[in-house]
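Following up on my earlier thread - several people asked me to post the actual chain instead of describing it. Fair enough. Here it is, all 84 residues.
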Amino acid sequence: MNLYLVMVMRRPQFDAAVVPAHQRFLDALRAQGQVERSGPFGDQSGGAYLLHAADLAQARAIALRDPAHVSGGWDVTVYEWQAR
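Reply from S.P.:
Thanks for posting it. Predicted structure:
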């Protein structure tokens, strides 16, 4: 499994009501061993999570199921991260 950094940045049309669904999504991925860490940025502009996936295509497919993306309230970007 490779490691991917998923950045979720709030758009002006951000709806705070989506946050609990986003958190449940991350909790489910964490329970499956796919999310290592997650959390919001201190300035409340968005957040990030570390995702384990087989490849970039799978990581993007997972991130695009995130309610943060589906709601249209966040920009979601996935980076392959070669952290040590």
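The two ends are 14 Å apart (CA to CA). That should answer part of your original question.
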